[in-house]
Specification:
- Among the domains are: 107 residues, no CATH class; 159 residues.
- Helix content is 65%, strand content 0%.
- It has 37 helices and no strands.
- Helix 11 runs parallel beside helix 13 and helix 31 runs antiparallel to helix 32.
- It is elongated and about 160 Å long.
- It holds the Pfam family TPR_TEX10.
- This is TEX10-like TPR repeats domain-containing protein.
- It comes from Microthlaspi erraticum.
């Protein structure tokens, strides 16, 4: 047998001195166990007084916390986004801190002007918007001249930049500068025109992007519109307080004018030639209707308007014998510009495109009207333009045209009509005048078109201060003129007081026509009010409400009122009549009328009378009616003599009396007016009106009186009641001094005193009437049982006593009434008898009052013995 092997003994493990650690590829070895840790941990020490935020406290900053200085520095950063954000930050800072602009405006301009030539489009746009919305509006009240002088070198540099986009931004920004400061163009006219010529000549970008050309052309048109010309509708004259700036500064110095004018005129010739060639480049687009879009229309419109402004300025220089556009340029205008009229011989066009063609043809027609002033044009070409003018006036070109577009075209053409009428034959003259008359009659009274028609009418009748046509030279034209003039007064009434500018224009025209004697030819029409009736309605319309008279005249501005009154002076030459006078009187009585205007009306009519335009009887009637019907209405709780109307009426009465004294010998004038004045007396007018009439009589009468017996009888009936009304209206106030009371009464008493001094019979009879009043009321008190009736009788007796005492207080009149002492004694007896009367209508207070009155009257009566 095989012996089995014994089991192997288990080997004992041996101790390991170093353990080998396997590392995976790419893992970082851990630091050694005995490695020194060099990491340092610390906390920041915060010192509040040293923080950046603390340094900016109280300083204007943007939303990102940047100051103006920091933002200006960032506008030069190499990164365009930072530059753009800096400009936006400046805009934000100005919004919240507007004072920063005023404080640092020159430093801001000096730094920001570099961005005109910035190579990034977004930066240039932000720069433009910053000046447009913030910088220029904030400095509009300042003198922008120094600011512009800082900008212009950089603008000129940008205009010569190699990048077309930078150049266009330069022209766009210059346009913005000129809008805010128009004299900029006059200061740099030659250089600017040279730069515009250069960029428009380089027309390689026309077809690719017409919007770029539009930028340059719009700015050029605006600059050319600033050239001074004969017309008053240039854009430079619509700039408010800037319109008085000198547009061409080189015209101020005569020594330098010829040199600078020569350079500028050469540039103008060049620019006109360039614009005409530019227009020719667009002709294929015009003829190919599919390529004629809005951008093309804008460019062509700017081109034509620019040429028109240059022609207008050329006309001005022709007047001054300084030619700008030579024969070569004129020939180019005829062949390349005007010969292309009309641009749309076919009317079968879409609405918007048809309107564009109409606008362009209108501008071409304006240019034709300017050129026709100094050059003879071919007959066929003239006929085409005249037909367009006539059709436009008649409104026959309507396809695609809005109402506003048609009206703008009419506004553009109307100023040239007067000179055009001089250059056409009789048939065309009649056609155009007839079409113009239709425009004048059909447009709204308050429209700008009506204003333009009024201006045209003046130039058609009296251009340059001289009558253009007489009935002998052209009766047809005179008939049209008469028809226009006859419409003016009714137009005034339609306008009322709501449109003062239009009203002033019409009144100025009427005044000019009156000065030149052009009103007499006005016809009258049965279906319409006459010229004079319409003028009367203007001062006093028939539709006046209630007692308030006066037409739109009373509520017009002072300037319009003065024009109307000056016109009225000339209108009275041959057309003044009693109905018109009545209308003016009603206007004068209008409580809305200011006192100064009232006095001015009296002055104007009296001047017309002195000039022989108003008959003496009509003028007398005006003055007397004005005084007799004027109403003095006191305010509530106020005496009539204390009201403003009373002061106005006093001044008016003085003026009327002064006018009467200037109209001839007093007694003779009184002889004419005596009956009229006494008739007004018999109507028992109000206290103030009665006083005024008495003053008029006294101003014309003399001592002894020249009044007739019938007039004396009328005054005897009137004066007692008038005197009693004085003391009734002016009650004696114990708190006020007797002197003030006397002075108040004196105004109303003086005319009576003058009449008493001139007629002893009048004095005696008036005192008898007052004594009779006292006697009648004394008897009534003794028998009456009604307390109210008794109180009225007692008051009437007191008033008579007050009148006698007032007459006694006047030293001169005291001598006059001494001869009638017996009548005063009878009044005293009646007063004394009432003190012991047993009438039940008399109270204890009433008897006490009678006792005081009796004592005062007794003292006065006794003094008459002296």
């Amino acid at each position: 047998m095989v012996r089995s092997k014994a089991p192997a003994k288990k080997q004992q493990k041996k101790a390991i001195d170093f353990k080998k650690i396997k590392r995976k590829l790419g893992r970082k070895l851990p630091p050694a166990k005995n490695a020194t840790n060099t990491e340092i941990k610390s906390k920041a020490i915060i010192l509040p007084e040293q923080s950046v935020g603390a340094e900016k406290s109280g300083i204007a900053t943007s939303k990102k916390g940047l100051t103006l200085k920091e933002l200006l520095q960032q506008t030069s950063h190499h990164n365009p986004k930072v530059r753009k954000d800096a400009l936006l930050g400046i805009k934000d800072l100005f919004k919240h801190y507007p004072g920063e602009m005023q404080s640092h405006k020159y430093a801001i301009i000096q730094k920001l002007r570099e961005r005109v030539t910035d190579g990034d489009k977004l930066v240039r746009d932000a720069f433009y918007k910053l000046f447009e919305a913030d910088i220029f509006p904030a400095c509009i009240e300042d003198n922008l001249g120094p600011m512009v002088s800082l900008l212009m070198p950089y603008i000129f540099s940008a205009m010569a930049d190699s990048s077309i986009d930078v150049r266009l931004m330069a022209f766009k920004f210059f346009h913005l500068v000129v809008k805010n400061y128009p004299p900029t163009f006059s200061l740099y006219a030659e250089k600017i025109l040279e730069n515009y010529t250069d960029i428009i000549q380089k027309n390689h970008f026309y077809v690719q992007d017409k919007s770029k050309l539009k930028v340059a052309l719009s700015g050029l048109e605006h600059c050319l519109s600033l050239l001074p010309c004969d017309e008053s509708d240039t854009e430079s004259q619509k700039k408010g307080h800037l319109q008085n700036e000198t547009l061409l500064a080189y015209e101020q110095d005569v020594a330098e004018e010829s040199v600078r004018f020569a350079h500028v005129s050469e540039r103008l010739k060049e620019i006109v030639g360039v614009l005409i060639n530019c227009f020719q480049d667009f002709i294929p687009l015009i003829r190919a209707r599919g390529g004629f879009d809005e951008a093309s229309f804008d460019c062509i419109n700017h081109i034509l308007c620019g040429i028109r402004y240059a022609i207008k300025y050329s006309n001005r220089m022709h007047i001054q014998r300084q030619a700008i556009l030579d024969q070569e340029t004129a020939s180019m205008l005829f062949k390349k510009l005007l010969a292309s009229f009309p641009l749309n011989p076919d009317n079968n066009l879409p609405g918007k495109v048809a309107e564009w063609y109409f606008i362009l043809n209108t501008v071409l027609t304006e240019t034709f009207l300017e050129v026709s002033k100094w050059s003879h044009l071919p007959t066929d070409l003239c006929k085409r333009f005249l037909e367009f003018v006539e059709r436009t006036l008649l409104g026959k070109i309507t396809r695609g045209n809005s109402k506003s577009t048609h009206e703008k075209s009419l506004l553009a053409l109307l100023p040239s009509l007067p000179k055009l009428i001089l250059r056409v034959d009789h048939d065309w003259r009649d056609n155009i005048l007839q079409a113009f008359t239709i425009v004048f009659n059909d447009c709204k009274p308050d429209s700008q078109l009506k204003l333009a028609c009024i201006s045209t009418i003046r130039d058609l009748i009296i251009p340059n201060g001289d009558i253009l046509y007489s009935s002998e030279s052209d009766p047809t034209v005179v008939d049209y003129q008469s028809a226009w003039v006859n419409k003016l007064p009714s137009l005034l009434n339609k306008l009322g007081d709501k449109h003062p500018l239009s009203t002033q224009a019409i009144l100025q025209l009427l005044l000019d026509l009156g000065r030149f004697g052009c009103l007499n030819a006005s016809p009258t029409f049965e279906e319409e009010p006459t010229f004079e009736e319409s003028i009367g309605s203007f001062f006093n319309p028939l539709q006046g409400k209630g007692d308030v008279s006066g037409g739109p005249f009373a509520s017009l501005p002072e300037k319009a009122q003065e024009l109307a009154l000056c016109f009225l002076f000339y209108f009275t030459t041959d057309n003044f009549s009693a109905p018109l006078l009545e209308s003016i009187v009603s206007c004068c009585l209008n409580p809305q009328l200011k006192p100064a205007v009232l006095y001015r009306i009296v002055e104007i009519l009296h001047s017309a009378y002195r000039a022989g335009y108003i008959q003496i009887t009509d003028h007398f009637s005006f003055l007397v009616t004005l005084v007799a019907r004027f109403k003095v209405v006191p305010d509530e709780g106020q005496l009539a003599m204390e009201s403003n109307e009373e002061e106005t009426f006093k001044a008016l009465t003085n003026r009327v009396c002064s006018c009467l004294s200037e109209m001839g010998d007093g007694p003779l004038v009184l002889q004419i007016l005596e009956k009229i004045l006494l008739e007004q007396i018999t109507l028992k007018p109000a206290l103030d009106n009665g006083c005024a009439i008495l003053r008029m009589i006294c101003a014309l009468d003399s001592k002894p009186t020249r009044l007739s017996e019938s007039s004396i009888t009328t005054l005897i009936e009137f004066l007692p009641e008038y005197l009693i009304d004085i003391v009734k209206s002016i009650p004696e106030d114990k708190e006020k001094s007797s002197y003030l009371y006397m002075q108040t009464c004196l105004y109303y008493l003086v005319p009576c005193y003058s009449l008493f001094d001139r007629s002893s019979r009048l004095t005696e009879e008036v005192l008898k009437r007052m004594q009779s009043i006292v006697s009648e009321n004394t008897k009534a008190l003794e028998s009456v049982q009604d307390k109210e009736s008794g109180r009225n009788s007692l008051n009437l007796i007191q008033h008579v006593v007050s009148v006698v005492l007032l007459m006694h207080n006047d030293v001169k009149l005291r001598k006059i009434i001494s001869s009638s002492k017996s009548e005063i004694d009878l009044i005293l007896q009646n007063v004394v008898s009432l003190q012991s009367s047993g009438s039940q209508s008399l109270t204890v207070e009433a008897k006490h009052t009678m006792r005081i009155a009796g004592e005062r009257l007794k003292i006065a009566s006794n003094s008459l013995l002296v």
